[in-house]
Structure formats: structure tokens, C-alpha cells
Design brief:
By secondary structure, the protein is an alpha+beta fold. The protein has 19 helices and 11 strands. The protein has helices at about 10-20, 20-25, 35-55, 55-65, 80-90, 110-140, 145-155, 285-320, 345-375, 380-415, 420, 430-435, 445-455, 465-480, 485-510, 515-545, 550-565, 570-580, 585; strands at about 65-70, 75, 160-165, 180-185, 190-200, 210-215, 230-235, 235-240, 245, 250-255, 265-280. Strands 3, 4, 5, 6, 7, 10 and 11 form a 7-stranded mixed β-sheet that branches. Strands 1-2 form a two-stranded antiparallel ribbon. The longest helix has about 35 residues, at about 285-320. The chain is globular and about 80 Å long. Bound molecules: flavin-adenine dinucleotide (FAD). Flavin-adenine dinucleotide binds near residues 166, 266 and 447.
Length: about 600
């Protein structure tokens, strides 16, 4: 069985030393009370809950999975109900919600650290409150005062849970094709009819009511994405005072059997004249749903970060313990029959790859969460706009780069175990299976790449990208003359210049032929992901250089050096591939594949 120890010191490093969240939040009246002690308390208590309550259910939940008991009834695996009750009673669902609706009002950078720990402990469990939080975000932004008063306090307290119902059998990526219908009733409500598939947490036994946020089409709606509206459809109809009424016309028709996250109920949902109310304006449903989707995209990145941490922890322990062969340079544990495999260069490469992506990504993701709060709550409008731009630009990167790396790292962790990783006993193969979905849902990583290159970069002639470039330039100017920083700053600056050129080149080519952007997008996102990693590893190294005698910081320097020496060079191949253009991809006739 894998073990999990919350990496509190690592999280404190990012939150307090790298981001200085107490000062950063001090600028925002809404979060001015945030201080180190408060943040550390959340990390300690949250970490304990994750390690003691959620982690022990990860393996058993995977093995048992959810059960479809017929007639729309879905049961979660043994222990999930009790864990949820503990989670709810301890107030964890309320952590980063608005105090007006019963939340504790903790900022996103703290909420995201807790999310990371939950995902390390149990991704399948974490998805239940994760989707609920997405529904909360969406209703907070777009609900009417009545909808907010009715639903938000119950979602925040954990009395009810939420889902997002977008996908249909014939449409996943292209939601413009969705067919679920919504018909206006005399009382102003709507009747929703249609089939949604792959709905996470669509039906289960954890709470008394499930609040579905459903995309559907009004009878007179225009075709495509401009004709989609958003509706709240509760499993049990709700009285004005929040009391539960009769069962609504929505039911789980079946449960998917899948590769991983087996303890999360992935349901086909049948809406059969279910009563709902509209959220936001008619035909503007996709805009409203984007609030939920953007939060969920960062959430999915955190799923992979959490998995990378737990897989890495176990792989390191195994590599220190497992004895095989002697080191190439002669025995290192002469008293033992062989050396621990951590002496072998390639085992170290695998561990350091995980660690470099893990720590660089943690810095990136927590920083992005801080910008999500700045975008909402900073008193200065220009600052809000700057943070909003960074958030928009880098949300597809946090989703796709972290999940691609999460799968890579889970695989490397399994590889460190050799055959003992492939068999089920050690739990590593579960991490690989669980990590795989993160690259697919919430918009596949291809779609994230198209969003980054097409909408976020070329769509505004590079303005958002220049905002991030300005942060890099600031760091390069501040540290460019410090000799000890040269090994980190030079490759960062160099990559920054290459990104500028690459962006211009793809932009020009795409004007002639849109397939050029489509063919370059995935490589392009990978390059931007490395630009972000390079920026954060340079910032981490800057702090570490000030502590020459402390092993914690010396480890940071060693990993930074590994990152720049062994991982960042991947960008050369990606840039070359992106520049190769669409011709070789598009040449073959579809019939000849
Ligand atoms: C376990 C699980 C849980 C899920 N949970 C939810 C949920 O809670 N709610 C919900 O609504 N949905 C959910 N989904 C659905 C998920 O979001 C979709 O599967 C995903 O968006 C992809 O859609 P699709 O499966 O229809 O693939 P398709 O859209 O058919 O795509 C197939 C392939 O074509 C590629 N492709 C499609 N269009 C383009 C394009 N324009 N350019 C380039 N490539 C393209 C895709 O990247 C992909 O590789 C879940 C799915 C799974 C498996």
C-alpha cells in the first residue's frame, strides 16, 4: 500500500517564501486577515485529514468501485459515506467559499494547497466536492439572488452536492451540437429532456440532494454554441424554503466502467421532463458554464499535481530500499548484497524528473491561484486586469502541462518499482490509471493547446503573453548580472526570446492557413509550459542561493540545475516540430490512413 505524508514544508516554502501570501493578500481588503499562522493551521489540519481519513480509502475505493443498484440508484464504495460525513462536519467544504453563504472565506492559494493534498490522498473522492465547488463558483457568478439564497448555503455546507452536465453521446468537444431540450412552462420554470453521458458524481449516496447544472437548448435557439442555455436541475425538487419535494425527472441510467477513478461515479443521466430554472440569460449558457469550466481546469491540474506528489514519495522510498546491482562507480553499500537502486543514474533521472515537474508546477499553480484572487479582489483595477490576463493565458497551461507531466511522472514512479510497480500490490499502477483521465476531461489537452495558441495568444495579438513576458524580463533584469544566477537566468531569457519568434512565425503562417496553428498547438503549449517552469525554477533558485548551508535549499538548487540541464532542452525539439508546419501532417488523404 502506498503511503502519503503531506508535504507541509514544501507548501510553506511556496506560500510563504516564494509568494509571500501574507503580504500579497494584505493588499486585498477581503483577505487582509490572512497570515502565516492561519495558513499553516489549514495545511496541518487539512493534511492530517487527508492522510488519515482519505488516503486509506484510495485503494479500497479503487478495488470496489461504485455500484449501480438499478432504478437510478448508485452506491459509493465502503467508507465513502463516513468519510464524507467527517469531511462535511469538519467544515472542509466551506474552506474557500464566501462567508455570505456560510463559507470560511479562505483565499484560493490556500484552498488549492488543500486540494493538492486531497488529490494525493484520493482523487476519486476529491472529485465529489470538487465538482460541487465548481457549481458553487458558477452560481455565485451567474445565479439570481433567489437561486443563490436557495442553493449556495447548502452547497457550501456540504448538505447538497453539484455536477456539471455538458457531454452528450454525440458531442463532447463540440458542444455546439448538443440536443438536450429545455421548454418554458407557464410558471417560468423549464422542462429539460435529453441524455447526458460521462457525468462525474451524477448520482451517488453521499448527500440528500444533487444539483445538476445542465446545458440545454431552447426551442427557438440559434444553432451552434450561441444557442445554449444553462439550467439548475435538482435531483429532488426544492421548495422556496429549501425543503425537499418530490423526485425530479432525472435519473442515472447506468454507470460507466472505466480505467481509473473507479470510486467516482461516472453516470449516464437521463433527463425526462425534469424541472429546472435558468441560470443567466437565454442562449448565454456556455459563458456562464465557463466559470465552472475554468475553475475545473485548474482543479484538474491539481489532480495531477497531487498524484505526482504521492507517486514520487513512494518511488523515492522504494529506490532507497530496493537493492539491485552495484553502482557503476563501485559499491556504495558494501555491507549489503547490492546497492539501493537510487545509486543508478537512470533511477535518479526518473526521480528528479518527477521532483522537478512537481515543485515547479506547485509554484506555478499556487501562484496562479493567487492571481485568481487578485483578478477578483485587488482594489486597483489595473492590477485586477493584469491578473485576469495572466489567469486567462495560463489556465490551459496549468490544465494540460500539469496533466501531461502527471501521467509521465506516475509512469516514471511505476518504472522505478520495476515489475513491482506493474502488479497491483504496491498501488503504483492505480496512480497511472487515475492520472490518465486528467489529460482527457475538462477539454482534452489538444483543446487546451488550441485555446492557448488560438484564443489566448494569437486572438489578442500576443498582449496576454507579453504580460507574462514582462514578468520574465523583470526577473532577468533584476538577476541578470548576478553570476550565481547565470545558469538559471540565461536559459530562461533565451527561451523567452525563442517563444517570441516562434509565436510570430506561427501567427504569420496561420494567417495564410489555419491548419498551421492546429498543427503547432500541442508543441507550442509544451514550450510555454517550459517557459513557465523556467521562470519559477529561476525564482526558486534565487531564494535558495541565499541559504548556502541549509540542505533544504541546496536540494532546491540541485533540482533547479537538473531541470535546466535535463528537462528544459525538450523545448528545442518542440520548437523544431512546431516550426515544421502543417504540410507533413495534412498531406495524407484520410482514406489512406
Ligand atoms: C471519467 C470521465 C468523467 C467525465 N466527467 C464529465 C462531467 O462531469 N461532465 C461532463 O459534461 N463531461 C464529462 N466528461 C466528458 C469529457 O469532458 C469528454 O470526454 C471530453 O471533453 C472529450 O469529449 P469526447 O469524449 O466526446 O471526445 P471527442 O470530442 O469526440 O474528441 C475525440 C478526439 O478528437 C479530438 N478533437 C475533437 N475536436 C477537435 C478539434 N477541434 N481539434 C483537434 N482535435 C479535436 C479530441 O481532442 C480527442 O482527442 C467525462 C469523461 C470521462 C471519461
Amino acid at each position: 500500500m502506498p503511503t502519503y505524508t503531506p508535504p507541509i514544508r514544501e507548501m510553506q516554502f511556496v506560500l510563504h517564501e516564494l509568494l509571500d501570501v501574507s503580504s500579497a493578500y494584505g493588499e486585498m481588503p477581503r483577505h487582509a486577515e490572512i497570515n502565516r499562522e492561519l495558513v499553516d493551521q489549514v495545511l496541518e489540519q487539512g493534511g492530517r485529514f487527508c492522510a488519515e481519513v482519505l488516503a486509506p480509502l484510495n485503494r479500497t475505493g479503487d478495488e470496489e468501485g461504485c455500484t449501480f443498484a438499478g432504478d437510478g440508484v448508485v452506491r459509493t464504495p465502503a467508507g465513502f459515506q463516513a468519510a464524507w460525513a467527517q469531511f462535511r462536519d469538519a467544515g472542509w467544504p466551506t474552506l474557500s467559499c464566501d462567508p455570505e453563504y456560510g463559507g470560511q472565506g479562505m483565499p484560493s492559494a490556500v484552498g488549492i494547497a488543500f486540494q493538492e493534498m486531497m488529490n494525493s490522498a484520493n482523487q476519486a473522492f476529491t472529485m465529489y466536492p470538487g465538482l460541487t465547488h465548481g457549481a458553487y463558483d458558477c452560481l455565485l457568478a451567474h445565479g439570481t439572488p433567489e437561486q443563490k439564497a436557495l442553493y449556495l448555503p447548502r452547497l457550501v455546507s456540504g448538505q447538497w452536492m453539484g455536477t456539471m452536465c455538458l457531454t452528450e453521446p454525440h458531442c463532447g468537444t463540440d458542444l455546439g451540437m448538443l440536443r438536450t431540450r429545455a421548454e418554458l412552462q407557464a410558471d417560468g420554470s423549464y422542462r429539460i429532456t435529453g441524455t447526458k453521458i460521462f457525468i462525474s458524481a451524477g448520482e451517488h449516496d453521499l448527500v440528500e440532494n444533487i444539483v445538476h447544472l445542465v446545458l440545454a437548448r431552447l426551442p427557438d435557439a440559434p444553432g451552434g454554441t450561441k444557442g445554449i442555455s444553462l439550467f439548475i436541475v435538482p435531483k429532488f425538487r426544492v421548495g422556496a424554503d429549501g425543503s425537499l419535494g418530490e423526485r425530479n425527472g432525472v435519473k442515472a441510467a447506468r454507470l460507466e466502467h472505466k480505467m481509473g477513478i473507479n470510486a467516482n461515479a461516472t453516470c449516464e443521466m437521463q433527463f425526462d421532463g425534469a424541472v429546472g430554472t435558468m441560470v443567466g440569460e437565454p442562449n448565454k449558457g456556455l459563458n456562464a458554464m465557463f466559470v465552472m469550466m475554468n475553475a475545473a481546469r485548474i482543479g484538474v491540474g491539481m489532480q495531477s499535481l497531487g498524484l505526482t506528489e504521492v507517486a514520487y514519495q513512494n518511488a523515492v522510498a522504494y529506490a532507497r530500499d530496493r537493492l539491485q546491482s552495484r553502482a557503476l562507480t563501485g559499491p556504495k553499500a558494501a555491507d549489503k548484497p547490492a546497492d539501493p537502486i537510487i545509486v543508478h543514474p537512470d533511477v535518479r533521472r526518473m526521480l528528479l524528473t518527477q521532483r522537478a515537474y512537481l515543485e515547479g508546477s506547485r509554484a506555478f499553480a499556487y501562484w496562479l491561484a493567487l492571481h485568481a484572487d487578485r483578478a477578483e479582489h485587488h482594489p486597483d483595477e489595473a492590477e485586477r486586469k493584469a491578473s485576469h490576463d495572466l489567469l486567462a493565458l495560463l489556465t490551459p497551461v496549468v490544465k494540460a502541462f500539469l496533466t501531461d507531466n502527471g501521467f509521465l511522472c506516475a509512469n516514471l514512479a511505476m518504472q522505478v518499482y520495476g515489475g513491482h510497480g506493474y502488479i497491483r500490490d504496491n498501488g503504483m499502477e492505480q496512480f497511472v490509471r487515475d492520472a490518465r483521465i486528467n489529460m482527457i476531461y475538462e477539454g482534452t489537452n489538444t483543446i487546451q493547446s488550441l485555446d492557448l495558441l488560438g484564443r489566448k495568444v494569437l486572438g489578442d495579438a500576443g498582449a496576454k503573453l507579453r504580460r507574462f513576458g514582462a514578468l520574465i524580463n523583470e526577473l532577468v533584469e533584476a538577476e541578470g548580472t548576478r553570476e550565481a544566477m547565470a545558469e538559471f537566468i540565461n536559459p530562461l531569457a533565451d527561451l523567452g526570446q525563442k517563444v517570441e519568434k516562434l509565436t510570430m512565425e506561427i501567427g504569420m503562417k496561420a494567417l495564410q492557413n489555419p491548419d498551421e496553428a492546429g498543427a503547432a498547438a500541442v508543441d507550442y503549449l509544451r514550450v510555454i509550459g517550459h517557459l513557465v517552469m523556467s521562470y519559477f525554477w529561476a525564482r526558486i533558485a534565487r531564494i535558495a542561493l541565499d541559504h548556502p548551508d541549509d540542505p533544504f535549499y541546496q536540494t532546491k538548487l540541485a533540482v533547479a540545475r537538473f531541470y535546466f540541464a535535463r528537462l528544459q532542452p525538450e523545448t528545442a525539439a518542440c520548437i523544431r516540430s512546431a516550426r515544421a508546419g502543417a504540410a507533413s501532417v495534412m498531406a495524407l488523404d484520410a482514406a489512406l490512413f
